[in-house]
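call fold(seq) -> tokens
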Amino acid sequence: MPTPAPEAGGIRRESESGQGAALVAFDFDGTLTVKDSFNAFLLWRTPWTRLLLGLFRLSPALAAYVLHRDRGRIKADAVRVLLGGVSRERLAADAEAFAQAFAQRLFRPDALARWEAHGREGRERVIVTASPEDVIAPFARRLGADRLIGTRLRFDARDRVAGGFEGPNCRGPEKVVRLEAVYGADVRLAAAYGDTSGDIEMLARADRPFMRLFQGRPER
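ret:
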């Protein structure tokens, strides 16, 4: 089974420019992985007693979600309740430990094989995800991603998670907005991979769009 590449040097973030000659974009959760990595991260790092308290505090937001169906809004509420006040340094260390422990259990082997094939062909590979960049960055480094574009958490003046996001949740049309911010308004993808309605707009920018292509499960 293909395995993630060893951790590479720093990946480029959205603010760094550069146009790939042949650009491919991958959604992360459900496409490269078998499940939502951010939810798994929150469950992993939160003691069960605090998790129960957090779910209680989130109950009004969860009830409201039934009506508004805004994933970004409920995610922002979860960040505020479960990560609020965590330092950027601590969050990065926790994300690294989570990736080290769970990468092999999360990645789809057929998705990794396609990812690696694009790398061998010299294409620029970008992960475009609704999950927070701070949580996905260790996975992106292990994969050797050229760039990571994701939801950006908001930090306060003391560099602690303040709750909410800097900018919109990176889902749906926002994925294209963020790609255009890096690669220009006429950005075109050689290929794009996704698994939900939140990837449709990104896939529409690809010469070869793939929806729910990968079905592989990691070996236990």
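Helices lie at 37-45, 48-68, 71-83, 88-106, 109-120, 133-143, 173-183, 200-203.
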